[in-house]
Each structure stands twice: as C-alpha cells, then as structure tokens.
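Standup notes
- HV: blocked on the assembly model, inputs below
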Amino acid sequence: MRDLSESRSHFLSTLARADAARIKTAAEALLPQLQPVEVVQSRSGLVMLPLRDTVKGCDFFMGEVLVAEARIRARGAEGYGMVTGRDLAHAMAMALLDAADAAGLPETAAFAADEAARHAAEDRATLCRIEATRVEMETF
Amino acid sequence: MAYVAARGGERAIEQAERLYREPLGEIDAKRVAGIRQSLPWLLDRVMGEASLYDPDMAALALAQAGGDLYEAVLLLRAWRSTQPRLGIATPVTQETLFTHRRISAAFKDIPGGQILGPTLDHAHRLLATSVLQGESLAPVPVEPASQPAPARQPSLAAWQRVEGLVANVLRAEVAPEDIPDITRQPLLFPATRAHALQSLARADTGGVLALGYAAMRGYGNAHPTVNELRLAEAEVMVRHPSGISFSAGRVRVSQAEVTTKGKGGQLDLGFAATFGWNEVKVIAAATLDLNAAAAPKGSPVEEEFVLYHTEPVEASGFCIHFKLPHYVTFQSALDALRDAKAEVWEEADSQTETVPA
C-alpha cells in the first residue's frame, strides 16, 4: 500500500515538474480519448508554506506560494493538477494526465517515466556542479 | 485628526503619476522576463519581504516600480490579498531540502562536508568597466565534479543534539491549520515563536541587517557564530483529493543557525529562514532570534522593538506618510510655538517696564 502511494506521489510530482510545453502536448494528444471532459475548476491561488525551525522544532509560515490548480472529470475519472506558478494550462494538462492514468490509459506511464528520467538527470547535473564547490578546511 | 481638501489636485495628481511612469517606458513580457533572468537575487529579496513566492510576479512588480523595492513589495502584498488561499503545504524539514550550499563557520568538519555552492564569498569584487566600452562579460563555465553532492542533509543542530552540544527540544505537534499566522492574527507580545519567525521571514532585509549588525557590534547580549548557513530548494508538498501528498514544485529558501556559548554548558542557537536566497537577511535575523530571549527591555534587540520596526510595508508606509499634507497638525504646533514666543516677549516687556530708570 505504501509503495502504491509512493509511486502515485512520484507520478504526480513528476507531472507537476514536467516541462510545460511537453505536458501540454501530451495532454492534447490524450484529449480525444478522454472526451467528454468537464472542467470542475481552473484557478490560481496561494498555498501557505510552513518550515520547521531547527532550534525549537517550531513550525512557522515562511509565506505563500503562487500555484495554479485544475480539477476535471473525464471518462468517469477525476483528475487533479497543481503546479507552482500561474500556468493554468500546465495544471489543466496535469489534471488530464491524472484522469487518464485513473482511467487506465497506458500512455501516461510512459510520459511520466520519460519526464522522471529527465528530472533525475537534471538533478544529478546540478549536484555535480554543486559538488565541484566542496572544500576541505584546515586550521594552522 | 484633521483632513485637508485639495482643489484642482486631480489633474496634478494624474500628471505626477505620468511623470513617474513615463521614463520607465513600455513594460512588456520581454522586460519582465529580462528582469527575471538578470536579477535573481533581487527577486529573492523581494519575494522574501513580500512573503509571496513567484519569480514572474516579483519581476513584474520590480518592472512597474522601476526598481523601488518598497513599492515592489507593496504591490506584491496588495496583489496577494486578492488571491484565495487554496491550502497549507506540509511543513518543510531540513532533511528534505535540495541543498545547493551548506557551510559552517563554527565547525570545519561537519557531517556531509562544507559545500560552498553559488557564492562570491572568496572572489574579488571588481567592477567590469570594460562592459561600458562595448566588451561583454561572459561567465566562465563551472567544471562539474564526476560525482554528485548529497542532495539532502540534516541540520547541524540535529547532529549537535546527538553530540550533546545543544539541548534537546520537546516539540509539540501542531496541525498545519493551527500554526499561528500573522497575516490573519495580530502580532502580540510576548510573541509566539511561530509569529516571531514568520515576522523575521517577511522582514525588511535592511531593517534586520541594521539591528542584527547592532547586536553583533555589542548592542546585543550574544555574539553569533554561523552554525549552519544553507541555500536550498524546498518541495511544496500539497495534497491530491485522494489524500496522496505530492510536490507541486520547488521554491528557493535560505536558512541560518547561529550559535553562542550558553550559560548551561551547552550552545545556544538562533534561527531564521526566508523565501529566496538571502544570506545577509537570515544571518542577521538568526542573530536577533539568538538575542531575543535575554534582551533587556527597550534594547535594539528586544523582540517587540525588532519585529515592529522591520516590517517593510508598515515601516516604509509610516515613513513616507509624513510627506503627505500635515498642514493642520503642523499649524497647531506652529500656533503653540507662536503662543510660547508671545508669552516670552510679554514677560520680557513686563520686566523691561519694571526696571527702574
């Protein structure tokens, strides 16, 4: 059960982080198979972001993050998307892929796997650049 | 309170606004994108003080304000109030941060090692005047290491607790919807820790620097050493309607722990964090947090003094309101001054009259 929720979490996180142009193209390609699509919600708004202080363990709000959110119904399934920023089309594309995944369309898994591989490569490249700044301090 | 009616002011006000905006020229998406690309550290500062994370909106605010930081923060705070609150993310913890920079000035051999990350700390600061003669300044590319740095690391305080260097904390679990929030509650003193840290996260960088620097120079009761300074990206973990938690994206955050030798044979710690990468702010703010507990009443590091005077919109708004017409209040002061002078003259006259010839 935990593996299933972790893999769903990873799937949704990957869609949210996906390249905006690519996920929109993927959603458009899936659209004919998802008809009729009912848009329940498409809006921007704010999500409060708390952080845990390391001294007393106190959770406090750092501020609000602008997000775009979409909810749809398609082929008897519900789809949900939320992404940081104000790209409503990205959130809608995410919701469409989420609904497609819930409806059992196999294309979504391939798209998510491709995107996840890109993200892993991006993160690795970033961390290799960061590792280049490691220092060993010596005192005399 | 008295009010002043201005006649014929509408046209003057409109022309004054035009005079302000006209030199800024046409603002379009290209200019906003240019600001976002070229001024990321400034955007971070503005997003932190606005306590609204969105680089596009911050770039737009800076474009509209012509770079006036207080105007930009005001625009963002005002715009934020028009947006619905859709939820509360899962609290960010240190070990989940995608870390770009993590250093300690107190301990050289920290678990995970010292990672400088993006910094000019050890670089020469030279103005590239040749750019003004037509040359371009191209950055030298980074030479990546063959292996990646560890993305996620616990806080240094967590390691110090294991070593017995800092006191253990008994934290009370608070549901995200019950975390105190100064955008919906008044700031009262003594402030809750959540209110104090939220206020510092939103505080004016220059304001906390001035007071933090005062504390460092001796006007405080604790001198700081940077225990850990971290620049990172935090996942914004939100909930799908099915209840599954996922990341809607990453935001840049900075945090600092500062330390000093405590009275109980352990280290005392101060903490601060903010949106964006803003080292000066979090080091100064953490210093103020470190000083707050034992601060004498009325000192520049006392919590009430610090939090009231570093709120950027209130402080800048109060300051600039003094340029607005105060004719009636000032007239009253002037009348009092004239009355006092008249009394002095009358007294002098009467004394002159009583002097024997």
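- HV (later): unblocked. Residues 327-354 of chain B form the longest helix (28 residues). The beta strands of chain B are 52-53, 85-88, 98-103, 114-115, 225-239, 245-261, 267-275.
- Next: hand off to the docking folks.
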